[in-house]
Amino acid sequence: MELLLASAIGIMTAAGIYLVLRLRTFPVILGISLLTYAVNVFLFTSGRVAVGAPPVLRDDITVYTDPLPQALVLTAIVISFGMTAVVVMIGLGAFLGSDDDHVDDCPDVPQDPPEGTS
Amino acid sequence: MSLFFIVALPFFGALLPGLMNAAGRSACAGVTFTVTLAAFIGLLTNLPAIIAGDVVMARVDWMPALGLNFTLMLDSLGFFFALLILGIGLLIIAYARQYLSNKDNMGEFFTYLLLFQGAMVGIVLSDNILLLLIFWELTSLSSFLLIGYWKHLPEGRQGARMALTVTGMGGLAMIGGMLILGQIVGSYDLSVILQNRELIQADPLYVPALILILLGCFTKSAQFPFHFWLPHAMAAPTPVSAYLHSATMVKAGIFLMARMWPVLSGTTEWFVIVTSAGLITMVLGAVIALFKHDLKALLAFSTVSHLGLITMLLGTGTAFGAMAAVFHILNHATFKAALFMSAGIIDHEAHTRDIRRLGGLRTLMPVTFMIVSLAALSMAGIPLLNGFLSKEMMLEEANHTVLFNNPWLVPVLATVGSLFSAAYCFRLIAHVFFGPVRDDYPARPHDPGAGLWLPPALLIIPVVVIGVAPFLAEPFVKLVTASVLGNAAEMPSAHLKIWHGLVPALYMSIIAVAGGLFMLAIFRPALRLWENTPRPEAKVIFEGIVEGIARLAQILILPLHNGAFSRYAAVGTITIVAAGYYAWTTGTLGAPTHEMQNADPVLISGWGMLVAATIGMVFLHRNRFLSLILIGIVGLMVSIGFVFLSAPDLAMTQFTVEVVTIILLLLALNFLPNRTPVESTVLRRMRDAGVAIAGGLASFALAYHYMLRDPVASPISEFHLANSYKGGGGTNVVNVILVDFRGFDTFGEIIVLSIAALLIYALTEALLGGPVRERLLNRKPKEPQAGGIHPMMMVVLTRGMMPIVMMVGFYIFLSGHNEPGGGFIAGLIVSIGVVMQYMASGFSWTSSRLKYPYHGVIGAGVLVAGFTGVGSWFVNKPFLTSDFTYVRIPPFEEFELATAALFDVGVFLSVVGAVMLSLESFSRLARRKESRTAMYPMDIDPSRPVQPEKEGV
What we know:
The structure holds two protein chains of two kinds. Chain A has helices spanning 2-20, 25-45, 67-98. Chain A is mainly alpha-helical. In chain A, helix 1 runs antiparallel to helix 2 (25-45) and helix 2 (25-45) runs antiparallel to helix 3. Chain A is elongated, with a radius of gyration of 21 Å. By secondary structure, chain B is mainly α. Chain B has 41 helices and four strands. In chain B, the strands form two sheets. A two-stranded antiparallel sheet of chain B has the order 1-2. In chain B, strands 3-4 form a two-stranded antiparallel sheet. In chain B, strand 3 (884-887) and strand 4 form a beta hairpin. At the A-B interface, helix 1, helix 2 and helix 3 of A face helix 8, helix 27, helix 28, helix 29 and helix 30 of B.
């Protein structure tokens, strides 16, 4: 089971990085989403995984999974929505403003000599 | 008055001029004057203690662990400088009121001036050297603002930048020096450091500390080879030049050298470095000053020269030298500030500062003539004026100073410096005021109103009084000298007097004055010679160095950081993977502590779908709609994974977030192109794939090895599990952690989420307020529009479901403390319920039925959560301490009431508000010109192109 989880994390990370390296905003956003999944699952597994032991206290049960990573990941999931929305908005604003959804600006080489040189 | 007030007054007062801007220019200047006057009077209240020889202290511990305390100390040296800063400050403020034109923003000017004043007072009153450094940097910053005050002048901006670069660099060096000093002594308090002369001078780090501190002092006080910035800073308005560059800021370096004199001086290193730098600066500055045609440039180089003189005196390391230095600081501050202000008056009235275009002003501007003559003659060292006295003392000291084993070197150079100094003073008087009256002045020169000439005239009073009756100044000079000397040397017995008898210094003085007159006589040939001599131009060199450094930085940075996002991402990934790989190969891997668990078929099939969808996305991502479906599958599989691996709360959250994310991306896709074109080359794709696979393998290896090993330390989760019910009153540990144990984190997180939503709203507003709005309104839909934009099935279904969704949300919210659920999940579910109405019945229909704007909901959420936390203050508990109790209302079962539930209400409200505000903002972009607000929920789009009806259908 650990192998499955780890490989899922690895594959999602690889796909996420590949998409983040694309040149248009939309695949980059999808790539970031994939990376978010990978990171969230990774953080979740930092509590070590167990089947059938949810951290909801019951009288006759003594084995629970680690609740702390779950709490952290829960807020991370919600915040990642906020972050995705902001990035989408920025990408959208850039596209609507310039009719261009490339993520890379031209390399930033100064064209004019800096002010004050004689 | 407490020292804290004296330092704090200018800083707090700096808020006032900006506020008073609307009240008029006089109000602005008036409030600045009042603030400075209050600080000045506050300073004077400490005079009795200073005269009694006490040191006034004030102390507040700030960061005691770092040795950084807000400790202030007022001894006679600090008092002397504070008196100069505040006293001349008062004159400058009065002068600036008249000087600045009504095009200048006076509030801004006085705000900067007060900031600067506060920083300067802070420097001279600091007892803690770290605090002193903070004020030191503040003077660099505020002087940057002041020098560049006339933002429209390129010289002003360049001068400000150069001053900031040089003094800022020196400040950095000084931080290093001060830290070394603090380490040697073991305390950062000046009063302690000053007691440890032997300890410091015996330390092997004494020389590095000395050099670093002197770098700071020399850059600030424009000593060779850092003298070049001061003349360029003259692009500032004249009040700034008079204040910063004659009386105060450039004296900060001198002040520090005097302050550190008891512990740093007296060694060969100190003597050689400080004396030679001072000597070179003095001669160089005086020679250059003589040939400058701009009045302010002349005065700037003359200031450089005089600062060199003072530095040289401090460098000699004798008590007499220190006394002469103190005396000259006082004298120089009076006559130089008066000269700067007079130069401003001439510029103001004649509209030029070029000496070649002036001349004959003696009869046109008699008052200014008087002021300038007295000040300049004092500077030249003419008897009965105060400059003569300290210059005599300097020459006397030079006579006893043997540098590089050569008894002639210092006296000769000092005489040469004085000679040129006298020459430029004579030139200043002769070429500006004497000669024939011209008829080609840019403006008709005349004496200004008293507002402009009174401040310099007031400064002339001490010039003359001290010059005639030096014994009046003697007690004060000796008082200050005593605190410069500390325990390091005996007070010199010499007195300040005009006639010392026929001593060598007198002959040197006579040579200097006579030589000065001779230089004036042969000025024209000398100028021709000077102009034909090639010499390095400091500004060109400085700019060359700056440009070279910038080039070097570009060469280093551009390959990594060229503005292309993909490059950052790739470089970042490779760096992280390389760092991980290094750790992997150099570290040791412990043995796995537990066996791999068996995988369930359900998990395997879920894994298969997730992997297929992920890989599918890589290959099919050009079809954007398809990739949205695929990412939906990935999210769904992750949710199922959470269900399976005992994380019901996570599963519910992931599932609901998935829904809103997909809706959001669909809304965005409405505007973006449907397909991603092929742009990158195969090579580039291979390279990206390589980077991606490396990153994937790294995260796989990390996660895999991580999961097979137990934590090295026992996690704090045990505590949470044990105390969740006992302390938090809930059985769902995840929820208790969120709203109780880590409530403050959650509070921060809902604020972050709210800020993100507000940011989206703001971006939407900005887009709709700009040129994009027209394009959006006139946009042609990409796909043919459906006839029924609000399908009846969907409308009926969503309205029917609304109460059910609300009830589910309510249930999940309430049960959240004990069962999976809680404010986050309930908030997401309710949002989905509302979004369904938007989708089915349309934007206008839904928003017209909303009672509360989403911003309000967000704000209410954050406030409810915040006030829940504040509530615990009323029972003397820390922020967000929770409490709970069980109540029973008769027919029902006993139930729990917890403050954490109230906090969860806040979480719930902010999540609903944030999610809805984001989605609403996106849909507002989607509105088009021709889309009309539908009267009824179920209608036909009236703007749809009418299809010709087919026959017989």
